[in-house]
Amino acid sequence: MESYNIIDEPKPSWGSTFVLDPIAILFLCIFIPVLWSPPLAATYWFPLVWMVANGIFMGSPTIKKELLIAVLGGLTLLGLLIGFGAIAKQDGMGVMVFPYFRILLKAALFLCLYYIAFIQSGPYALHQYIYRQGQSNE
User: Fold this and answer.
1) Which of 4, 22, 43, 57 could form a disulfide with 120 if both were Cys (CB 3.0 to 4.6 A apart)?
2) Is the pTM of the predicted complex or chain greater than 0.90?
3) pLDDT tens per residue, the chain (138 residues)?
4) Distance between CA atoms of 42 and 14, rounded to whole angstroms?
5) Contact partners, residue 62, CB within 8 Å, separation at least 6
């Protein structure tokens, strides 16, 4: 029984040393923009890329679902930006709506991040178990 394959077991890749707890990534994505504003609006797109990269490095069996959620979340954020651009072109509406728009953007982003973190938490626990077993056998 040297080789067996469990479908829902993570398959660690070359980047498994870079894997972080998905909840830690979620909290970092919430608190880092409070202290530092990343360039190129990375506050909105980088967390989604980071979560997908975490799933790839972990060898997550749910990576397709995570990628789908990240793409749909990114498209939702892009749609909100385009919609806000249309509203902002109207006379004086952009100034009045801007604070609410930022809240809506953050809510959409955190909803996607929370959902991906929730999906990744199961494979992450298995990944940690497998990673610790591999270290103890060496």
Assistant:
1) 22
2) no
3) 456 666 666 766 677 788 999 999 999 999 999 999 888 889 999 999 999 999 999 988 899 999 999 999 999 999 999 988 888 887 777 777 888 889 999 999 999 999 999 999 998 988 888 777 776 666
4) 26
5) 55, 119, 120, 122, 123
